[in-house]
Amino acid sequence: MSTGRLWLVPTPLDFGTLDAGGQAPDLREVLPMGTLRTAARLSHWVVENAKTARAFLKRVHAVVPLAQPLQSLQIQELPRGSKGPHGTPPAVPEHLLQPALSGLEMGLMSEAGMPAVADPGAELVRRAQALGLTVTPLVGPSALLLALAASGMNGQSFAFVGYLPVDETARATRIRELEGVSRRLGQTQLMIETPYRNAALFRALLQHLHPSTQLAVACGLTLEDGWNHSAPVAQWREGRGAAARHVPADRPAVFALWAR
Predict the structure, then answer these.
(1) What's the structural domain count of the chain?
(2) Which helix (H) or strand (E) is 109 found in, with range?
(3) 175 CB-near residues (< 8 Å, 6+ apart)
(4) Which end of the chain is more exposed for a tag (fewer CB within 10 A), N or C?
């Protein structure tokens, strides 16, 4: 059994958004000090995107000084691959885990939220487990769980189905399939989309779901201007009150449906 450890380090959901004063939001508003202290001491990282990882660590340094200068940290990127639910994850070369295999601590980081949950990293975690490394998740925001909690839908039985097909016909078929599963099992179905396709997915959900099916949209979670709304499809179609909200094309959103 190796003595090395892989820390799963969550990051904020703001994607570097600046506040009214032109500053990035204070990390202490969304991440515990224990998570920030761990991130500050790690010198070896595997990340989804090196640029955003460095930006995050720079923000960490403003709260907890990094143990080593940012320029001296060893930051390696995960292999690129499909994020889709049916895509085969790219193979993870063992050398990415070499620091931990040598007995050191290292961190795994995605661009936003919890790594390996609706984000890359699961294959690295699986490999670390198989190699006998200690894997330790840290506390931080997960967009899926925040959206589910705010939806009022079934939190005892739910499924994350990832991205829906881009093709309109295939997407419509998939929406109806998920609605049928939800009605049969009483199970909440959660999905996401690339931000510039948010509006297309939203329109498809309104078009193909039954009027009584509950639909929830959560956007900008943890941000000051973030919002979420949950209502029957019929109310969304009317477009009154909160249901008239615009789903932006430049910010991640989580969509959920629950058919009863």
Answers:
(1) 2
(2) strand 105-109
(3) 164, 204, 205, 208, 209
(4) N
C-alpha span between 130 and 124 (Å, rounded): 10
**What would the pLDDT profile of 114-173 be if each residue is shown by its tens digit?**
999 988 899 999 999 999 999 999 999 999 999 999 999 999 999 999 999 999 999 999
Residues 91, 108 within the same domain: yes
Asked whether the beta carbons of 47 and 109 are under 8 A apart, the reply is yes
The answer to whether residues 107 and 9 belong to one domain is yes
Rg (CA), the chain: 20
Q: What does the angle CA 199 – CA 175 – CA 256 come to, to the nearest 5 degrees? A: 65
Strand partners of residue 189 = 159, 257
Q: Is 234 exposed, middle or buried (0-12, 13-18, 19+ CB in 10 A)?
A: middle
pTM reported for the whole predicted model: 0.89
**Looking at this protein, which amino acid is placed at residue 141?**
P
pLDDT band (50, 70, 90) for residue 93: confident
120 close to 110: Cβ distance less than 8 angstroms: yes
Are 10 and 138 in contact, with CB atoms under 8 Å apart? yes
Is 179 strand, coil or helix?
helix
Question: Any idea what the CATH number is for the domain that residue 47 is in?
Answer: 3.40.1010.10
**Residue of 2, 34, 3, 27 lying closest to 13 (CA atoms):** 27
Block residue for tokens 């709260």? 63
For 51, the 3-state DSSP assignment is helix
Spatial CA neighbour of 57 closest among 43, 39, 75, 32: 39
Question: What does the alpha-carbon distance between residue 214 and residue 188 come to, in Å, rounded to a whole number?
Answer: 9
Q: Which of 89, 105, 137 is the last residue of a domain?
A: 137
